[in-house]
């Protein structure tokens, strides 16, 4: 039983959108949005950017047992620098046993460039090293995938080997053990720092640890420089 009479409904050829609209046109747009009239297109040749020089490294987080920590000569709850061959064996075991929970881009300056590009929706340039051969799903692949597309990575120097890797190994009790492998992250050559990129930058920053890492990050950090 109907509680109200049926009323014929007619559709107009031009339907009205409910509420207020900031633009009076949809498609095609014959008039510019009045809110955007004062915005002038950017001249790309005059735009500045920010540039950073970093030790490119990947933060790798995994859940392991105590035997894993002992097997690789690590000290539970501490941070140690490990040799590249040890790091590669450690990484391959993590991959083989599906123990990795996260792989994401690390590095102070690299993160700064990424965050700037995300928040400002603007160009930044990162200088550093990157693996010449990148395996899909690997740590270098994850580094590139997790960096903003507005961060210009075209100037990265290719290296035959690994970039830096910082392993965060979480034990059954939740205790974290850190293992750092520098790889080739300190092998950035002077010719891989284009003068034009630096000269046109609005700001520049660097977080560098010169020479081989002989001790933990806390000791090497005294040589860090920021601009």
Automatic annotation (TrEMBL):
Its EC number is 2.7.1.73. SUPFAM superfamilies: Ribokinase-like (SSF53613). The keyword Transferase applies. GO terms for molecular function: kinase activity. It is an enzyme of class 2 (transferase). It comes from the Bacteria. This is Inosine-guanosine kinase. Keywords: Kinase, Transferase.
